[in-house]
Amino acid sequence: MSISPNWIALDWGTTHLRGWAMSAGNTVLAEAHSDRGMGTLTPSEFPAAFAELTRDWTAAPAIACGMVGARQGWIEAAYQAVPCTPLPTSFTKAPTNAASVHIIPGLSQSSPADVMRGEETQIAGFLALNPGWDGVLCMPGTHTKWVQISAGEVVSFQTCMTGDLFAAISGHTVLKHSVVSDDWDDAAFAEALSDTLSRPEKLAARLFALRAEGLLHGLGNATAKARLSGLLIGAELAATKPYWLGQQIGIIGAGPVADAYVKALASQGAPATVADGPRVTLAGLTAAWTILKGQL
Amino acid sequence: MSISPNWIALDWGTTHLRGWAMSAGNTVLAEAHSDRGMGTLTPSEFPAAFAELTRDWTAAPAIACGMVGARQGWIEAAYQAVPCTPLPTSFTKAPTNAASVHIIPGLSQSSPADVMRGEETQIAGFLALNPGWDGVLCMPGTHTKWVQISAGEVVSFQTCMTGDLFAAISGHTVLKHSVVSDDWDDAAFAEALSDTLSRPEKLAARLFALRAEGLLHGLGNATAKARLSGLLIGAELAATKPYWLGQQIGIIGAGPVADAYVKALASQGAPATVADGPRVTLAGLTAAWTILKGQL
């Protein structure tokens, strides 16, 4: 028996594509995944990727968030400039005859220059699940976002490319010999974090020492890896202190990376509550659909 | 007519091998290059690489510096621990029947943990060319060394892997779209350097902005590249301030990277004199030969 969604929710990032067949009451009828992320597609290949993902479902209007709306994506959905609500009042229609796909634009900030795509939908979802919430959202990932929320609007935000840096340093510098491990060392993480937070100007002197301590003193890879993570997240917390100091903090994410941010903030006397990423994404897509359906 | 050296000087690094056929009066009779660096060789392949490099020369004892003496090199030449003179009184003989090759050990520092291999020979060369010199040597490269020299000894040193970081960030993060350029922007370098030096805790907030300014405000790649370089060298100068502040500074190196360090230090009121890298390397190998020849 085929699935007949009332509408389709799409989370279309750089490396992944995830879809949900939704009922008129906004419950999930079916779910589909694909690795046909925006980074693997030319603009003309998006319609086929969408058709393939939804091949077992009858046609329905779709709403999409993420890098699908980037300049190199299906079609550019121009940024909304902050301060603004995370979702706009209208969306960008993708150029396709076979389906009706609407794309949620990202947010931009002129100074300091910053951009996001996809996270605005998670912010909208978090606010839909937590009406009236004010504070700072931390969204850990390759490019972690720190977002100041007030009265339902995104006031300002700051991206730190800590995950991207960690991967580049671990994989493409001399430290590749020292930090590859499946294990972890909580104490080393905490110590390195505290060191960078109290003396951020020493960061550049700490990195090669991870290699030298391995050569001279047998420092293990799990400890070196946790220390590198602590140094980099410490540098991020030092740079974003105006965002998190004395604020109500919500972290959107799950797994070891979100855990590291929770522990890091807790060590600085800044408790944070954690919200599950996919759940808030779907809540945000649902909020966008609520806006869109009145216009169809 | 074949070359008959009195001795052979070798600079054997990770990616290159360079040799000089030397006279009894320590003048250069001939020079040879090869790309058979330590990183491309297993221990058993070193004798053939040496034989190939010197095939046009008659046999003579050789002295070598660099990664050839690392644990993964021809044979490990155990580090000398600082404080010490840059050169030891004896060297490590490579395991080969066909030739007499002696390897100069690197230097180690227990705390903060640090190591060097090859730079100790440049330090010895610099001191041979500048007898009685006291001050700080800056040796820019993939892993820049800052070395405190007093009374002919290396007192302490600090490695910053700034070049390695720059390459990893330029090649393997989202900034690869933003910083690849053959051009340069002096003003952007100076401004970013000054920014990190005065506010090192903000570094993690500056990097993604290079991408965002390109997307939002058309920041050019040459400017973004110079700014990235300024941010990273600024972080290095912030971390190494106890080394260079108020000291006599010598920079060993040449080309754009050495120029960047000269300009960076000058902007902080710290003038530096520059010494040519290959010249000091050969002077250091000559100083090592002077020690070795009395023992053969």
UniProtKB/TrEMBL annotation, chains A, B:
Gene3D superfamilies, per the entry: 2-keto-3-deoxy-galactonokinase, C-terminal domain, 2-keto-3-deoxy-galactonokinase, substrate binding domain
Keywords, sorted A to Z: Kinase, Transferase
GO annotation terms (biological process): D-galactonate catabolic process
Source organism, top-level taxon: Bacteria
InterPro entries (UniProt xref): DGOK, DGOK_C, DGOK_N
UniProt GO MF annotations: 2-dehydro-3-deoxygalactonokinase activity
Protein name: 2-keto-3-deoxy-galactonokinase
Organism: Flavimaricola marinus
Lineage, opening ranks: Bacteria, Pseudomonadati, Pseudomonadota, Alphaproteobacteria, Rhodobacterales
